[in-house]
Design goal:
The complex is a heterodimer of chains A (342) and B (314). Chain A has 342 residues and is α+β, with helices and mostly antiparallel strands. Chain A is built from 15 helices and ten strands. Classes of the chains: A alpha+beta (342), B alpha/beta (314).
Amino acid sequence: MSVVMKALETYRDDFTFRNSPEAIARFPFPFPEDSYMYSVNLEPATPREPGSVFAHWFDIDEHYVSEMAERARVLERDPDRCLVMPHMAQAAWDTLEMLMEHLAADYPEHFALQREGAQWLWSNRPLGIEQRFTFGDASTLPCEPLEYITRQAQGDFALLDQRDGDLFMDAGMVTCPADWSLKFDAGMSFKQWHAPVPGVAHQLGVFERALKYLVNIQVGHPVRRLNWTMTINPRLDTSSETFHEWGHERGEVTAENVASLVHLRVELQFMPRLPRSNALLFGIRTYLISLEELASNPAWACRLHRVLRDLPDEIADYKGLTRYRQTVVDWLRQFDPQACAA
Amino acid sequence: MSALLEVQVAAVRQLTPVVREFTFAAVNGRLPGFSSGSHVQVVLPLAERTLRNAYSLLGDPRDSGVYRIAVRLQEASRGGSRYLHEQVQVGDRLQIGVPSNLFPLHSLARHHILVAGGIGITPFMAYLAELEAQGASFELHYAYRSGLTDAYTAELQARLGARFHGYDAAAGQRLDCANLLTGKPLGSHLYICGPQRLLDDLRARAAALGWSAGRLHWEAFAAPEPGLPFTAELTRSGQRIAVAGDHSLLEALEAAGVEVPNLCRGGVCGQCATGYLGGEVEHRDHYLDEQQRSHVLMPCVSRGGCSGPLLLDL
């Protein structure tokens, strides 16, 4: 199935980002039940139906060109959103190889890779890039290899070094985080960077079990999970560094604008083993959908109503929903037959 | 075990009278990359049963067009190494697992001390390629017997110069474990691959010198030791499985069509941990603590007793 890319849209200022009906149909709605609680919802990342966001290792969709333009804008203001500690150089090359191989194989109409030994030729048609380089020699690329390839791949990428039976966030490209910061988390262990997650997740032993699972991921056998939060406006860059630019928008939600302003934000997290470095790649592919778009599927709107209505306060606080949750629940109630009848 | 790769034997080299090196090439497409210290399981279809033995990959991880392993002929072999030495020829096809790394280099080490006993040199062959490419600080200590277990010694001596320290048992040279660990720079990490007594000796000396456990890394020769035959009962299905003395419980389960996730097949990785509800257990793993052992066992190495069936939570 060929991906048709939309013309340039924005994730800031005038917020022209919208989903086509096709994009809405393939949106990864994250709730298998009418309620939400933390769990180790990791599963083997086996490819699913063609056209779905689970079809390929790295999903490319209609927003590709816009999202890459947004990443470039963020990096222009803050080049440190990409960080590679010296011992992660090989993991960066691993990531470049993995992304190029999979993009070229899965989207041959958009990407191509020719390898002759260490001499590689990479073509990216949507962005108009053609690059000859020597694999392993960073001086033959316009910038550091992780930055180079992740400027051409949707979603954030953290590279986790595996040592001492733990994972450490020692490299990454993070320009669209859901209220966190790579600069703040750099060098932290798995449990350290999850420390802000509400106590209930820790009490459930979620992180011990998840870590044990992740350190045993094998080459060629990645795992995935979905995570979610909500964002005001289709804003990709909700990083801690720019909180002053977007945090106040949580107070702007009204009964009139809630459907267009509030977005469900879903992360498709994808974790493959990087073969040569033994590091773990942590891909965070973000999907945004306005409540208005989401309600075009009434079953989703009904379920989201129940999830948000019954969400424990501690989790709502952590996700930053508290100020506008009631307004959202009130609007979604119309899609819940049980609640309307009551 | 997860999906298998189909490979063809591209080359065979007899390195010493008891060590034989095999080069595997992909039958379809490209072999997955691997990191130094990785091993693969090789499926060995013996006449009487199928074995899955784990062998370290010894090529350069930066050039993984092919995989290489080196196999020592084991006298007390269960038949796996003998099969590789006597049956497998260039052009044969074999099935192997994907690479998995339970013995990785530590990315923050300032200095790497590698200690190999005999065939324990194999994971370090990949280490050395990686460390040389990184320009890292390292030294190799290799105990061998010339004319028998001295695989790669000439090559390593020429390549590593003063960083190579060989100890030839045939010439009466002994690895001096006492002095190996003294006077090393701060941030040194020690990696050991060899027989159990070498591991035990070095670990004890390191502990006595105050080395923190996190700076010690080892890989034991992983092969299940034989024992007495016993019976296992799968309590969920009621199935009874007879485990022969020279089969591991994991092998017997696999032969009966019961798949249990596993990586090392040597009692260290923890992947095959299986609950049990009753029966006598001889725990032989290096993974579970005493508390866990009351209800979990590692079928790759541990065995049941003769007094009655081992009741597995399967």
